[in-house]
Amino acid sequence: MATSNLQAELRELREQMNDLKTVISRETSRGTSRIRHRAVDAFDGAADTASAMAGYARDGADAVASVVRRHPGATSAGLITLGILGGLIGYLVANSAPAARDHRWRWN
């Protein structure tokens, strides 16, 4: 009689463990499904944002290209002026470095 009670309790514990396994696997599957949906939504949002930014950049490039086509002389003059200014700034920065120290100031 004691063994039958013990076997019945063991059977009940096994059933409870199987039920727990089922519940845990179901909840895990729900959690991974939620995470997967969140990741897909995030990637979709990032793709939409990247597409919008690419369209904005394309529109800006088209606007610049149309200005260059309409005014090629002004564009080349502007670019030459910017090049001269860049060269002048580079020359001034290169010459503004402090003079090298005399050899008397070395410690060795």
The averaged pLDDT comes out at 85
Sequence of secondary-structure elements = HH
Indicate the structural class.
Answer: mainly alpha
Distance between the termini: 100 Å
Number of strands: 0
**Strand percentage, roughly?**
under 5%
The stretches of 5 or more residues where confidence is low (pLDDT under 50) are: none
Rg calculated over all Cα atoms: 38 Å
Largest sheet: none
How does the overall form come out from the CA principal axes? elongated
Helix content, binned percent: over 70%
Number of helices: 2
Structure in words:
This protein has 108 residues and is mainly α. The protein has a domain at 2-70. It is built from two helices and no strands. It has helices at residues 2-70, 72-95. The longest helix has 69 residues, at 2-70. The protein is elongated. It starts with a helix and ends in a 13-residue tail after the last helix.
What brief labels describe this structure?
108 residues, mainly alpha, 2 helices
Briefly, what is this?
This protein has a domain at 2-70. Helices cover 86% and strands 0% of the residues. It has helices spanning 2-70, 72-95.
